[in-house]
């Protein structure tokens, strides 16, 4: 079963993450998934003068619960936080992905209990990355492409 037009690894989530990573690296993507609009926006197919650089993603574990990542900024080792939203940094051929946690700079809720508790109106990169096995996920939701830098 294939979910995207460019990859066919047998893992829909891995294939979508590869396509997003490619699009964010300014590579052409032939996505035919539910994330197609976000990727097209990122590539400038819908608005040529955009400064969009990120497709925020929300991942779901195989138990159908949203995946929440945790991290600690290098500059403040005592200030751990959580996020449900990520920017794909890379994904390898073994389906290991590096994801950067996204959050609002002024979001003071360090540990939201659900994705709807986390403010998404102005998501930004955090510099905090985690490595995940994308075979552990069964669903992906793409938010509209944004400028996160």
TrEMBL record:
Write down the species.
Paraliobacillus ryukyuensis
User: Which domain of life does the UniProt lineage start with?
Assistant: Bacteria
Q: What is this protein called?
A: Spore coat protein Z
- Lineage, highest ranks first: Bacteria, Bacillati, Bacillota, Bacilli, Bacillales
Q: Which UniProt keywords apply?
A: Capsid protein, Virion
Return the Pfam families for the record: Spore-coat_CotZ
């Amino acid at each position: 079963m294939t979910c995207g037009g460019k990859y066919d690894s047998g893992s829909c989530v891995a294939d979508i993450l590869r396509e997003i990573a490619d699009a964010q690296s300014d590579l052409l993507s032939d996505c035919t998934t539910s994330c197609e609009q976000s990727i097209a926006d990122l590539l400038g197919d819908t608005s040529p003068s955009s400064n969009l650089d990120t497709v925020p993603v929300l991942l779901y574990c195989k138990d159908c619960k949203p995946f929440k990542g945790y991290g600690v900024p290098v500059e403040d080792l005592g200030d751990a936080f959580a996020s449900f939203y990520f920017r794909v940094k890379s994904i390898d051929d073994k389906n290991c992905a590096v994801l950067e946690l996204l959050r609002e700079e002024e979001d003071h809720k360090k540990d939201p209990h659900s994705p709807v508790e986390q403010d998404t109106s102005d998501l930004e990169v955090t510099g905090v990355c985690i490595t995940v096995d994308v075979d552990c996920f069964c669903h992906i939701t793409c938010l509209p492409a944004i400028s996160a830098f």
